[in-house]
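Q: Got a minute? One more chain.
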Amino acid sequence: MTAPTRLAPRSTRAQWVRAALLLTVLLRAALAAKPRGENVHRPQGDCAACHTADAATLGRDGAAARKLLAPDLEERCNGCHGDEGPSHPTGVRSAKTVPELQLTDDRRITCPTCHFMHGESNAFGDFLRLDNRRGGMCLSCHQLSELQ
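A: Always. Here it is, folded:
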């Protein structure tokens, strides 16, 4: 006759189950927050994914490159990044100018307003141009009462 198999105490099994569930949730969240598609933001990326000119043209004049953007840039950004979490509405005109945040010539907010597009800096995470801990970037344009 074989000896009965000893099971772990109920509390130990429950801890393992909770740990496995937590790990599964965290893994799913990490995978869901990743951009989809090829990384066009790297230096050798496909410039035509966002710009209306080729790399040689864009490289000659960085200031001009900021204006040579595809008219449907926001749709293109959302094609890969649309499910990565909350974001500011784009296409709206800004009443305030913040030197670190880039508006279009007609003062509209776009993805590049708040995010570096080519990985220039990631000191604040998500390639944000300003520190947004405790809402710092939001408060550079908005009053706290507007956000509550």
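A: The helical segments are 10-32, 55-60, 62-65, 73-81, 111-114, 144-147.
Q: Perfect, thanks.
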